[in-house]
Amino acid sequence: MKRTAIYGTGNLAANKIKELVHSGADPVVVYDRLHFWGEFCGIPIRFWGHVWKEDIDELIICAPDMYVEEIYRRIFDAAFNNNIRILGYGGEDLYEIFGIPDYRLDSYCYSKRSLKDLYAAIDDAEAVSFDIFDTLIMRRTMEPTDVFELVDIDSGKKFHFTDDFRAVRREAELKCGGNIQRIYSEISGMVNVSQSDIRELIEKELKYESLLTVPRRDMVEAFKYALKMGKSVSLISDMYLPHELMKNILEKNGISGDYSLFISCDYGVNKGNGLFQIYKNKINANKYLHIGDDLYADICGAKREGIVTFEIRSSMDLAKYTTLSALTGYARSIVDRLIAGIVMEELFNSPFSLCAHGDIIEVDDARTYGKVFIAPLIFYYMEQLFLYVKQNGSIKTVLFPARDGFLMKKIFDMYYKEHLSAEGRYLFASRRLCNEAADYDNTDVGRNYRKYLKQEGIENEGEYVLCELCSKGSTQDALNRILKTSLKGFYLSRRDGLDNLDIHSLYDRKEHKAGVGLFVEWGNCIESVMSSNDPSCIAIDSTLQPVYDIERRTEKEKIFMEKSQKGILEFFDIMSDCGLIASGEHISDDLCLKLLSMQGNVVLSGELDFLNERGFYDDLLQKRIKYHFDRHIWE
User: Fold this and answer.
1) Distance CA 527, CA 277 (A)
2) Peptide bond between residue 403 and the one before it cis (omega within 30 degrees of 0)
3) For 50, phi and psi rounded to 5 degrees?
4) Positive or negative torsion for Cα 347, 352, 355, 359
5) Which pLDDT tens digit goes with each residue over 331-382?
6) Which of 64, 100, 115, 516 is the most buried (most CB within 10 A)?
7) H and E: helices and strands count for the chain
8) Could you tell me the pLDDT band of residue 622, with boundaries at 50, 70 and 90?
């Protein structure tokens, strides 16, 4: 029997549920934009972001005709990526009616407005007001309620919530409105938690609100410009955090000075039902300007009070206009959603980031490149490596071969070592060095290398796992021959090569053909990012010290590597701060692949322009090779 879901909690939804129940096709779950908790007509209400957990076959949108397309566009990516048919109230297939949402016209119209236009609008006003969230500051998340799920992870196991805390927290806010204290007072009546637990939950929510908010830099500069030009500046927000707590968050993000603050929870009304009127009564001016991202709350709400508006776009809205539009459909867990939030922060921090190229993204610095395109994949690899080592209790040493194991070893020591009994070891073990040592076992090359391995505590009776990014297994095979044992291998992607090796590959050449194809294209680039600053080790001398080849990389390639690594470590710092290192939370491998592939659809300029050639030096082949897109090979 088909598993059917309902979208909506109004009269149409109630009628459709009755119709389905009467026909014997009971709906299994209800989704709604506002409500995530409780029941509707006896059917459980769930958070739409968790639709991937429910194994839904079809979803029926139960809403007035004027809202159906808007809802369809909002949920399309997640439904499409989870193979869910979207139907109208009468059973019509909405994909046949609306097709794939196309935001290009919106992009064309919006990208015509620039920061210069905003400054001109500020110049023309006497009183200037700014929305706060998604305008002056933004969260590193897909949705505001993602903060609640982090609180859930941090506290939920302790308090044993029987329901998703995100849903409980959201429902409490809808029931009572008001400030955060009233919301949590409502929660204490919904679930069994003590007052001391409530205080702890509030502290954790405030911690994550502060941790995850970052300034939208161009907008903060516009705020400062308005102050500098002597405008009467105000901030207006529909928010449950009272005045003083909001001030702290704003100051942390560089927003300070002589401004007025209008928060809905302080006045008991929001932008749609009186907050703008209160603002105008307190701030007397001849010409008002309000700047915000929400069409209904900011733009329509302000216009109803005769205020001129300047609409900007949130980072999530900007992403819809680009090749990243499908990204949200791959974001399933809280980790995925935080990854998406980090990407949005980096690429669309400025509301005017699309002014130069329309719907094309431009990336010009290596730190952003590493943080957006490489870090999610490395995080996925390290989390899976952690689980692999933890589950294989016999593994005593995790081997990170030089040079592309350099940053992995650093990440292992910084973030994972404390969670494991196994130690990490950085090992001089290039393909060239290991194969020569194995092939010339009875020469100085082979003898010196065996002595080096013994010095490092690597002997044939140990239990080791060799970490590789993109490999055929030649280094592992050579080490097996040298040690006369069988190492375990843990690879990001296994290329066509040796089949007689004990290898666990996250993207296997048989099971993930599309993914492996991407690593053929980008593998050398990934390895160059993860490498050490030293040249390749070509031998171990008689004193058991490394002998380095001459440096083959250009200065630009080395700067690219160092700055990309900085971005990757920033990514891991955020994950660590959010308690998501070694957490066991689900990570979408499809999301990581999607981000890796996206770099082929952006404009790479500045520090990254050399990547357009895709040329890197190969240590084993001892020559610079280049990827040919027409034949899908490196030469």
Assistant:
1) 58
2) yes
3) -105, 20
4) positive
5) 889 999 999 999 999 999 999 988 777 777 889 999 999 999 999 999 999 9
6) 516
7) 26, 25
8) low
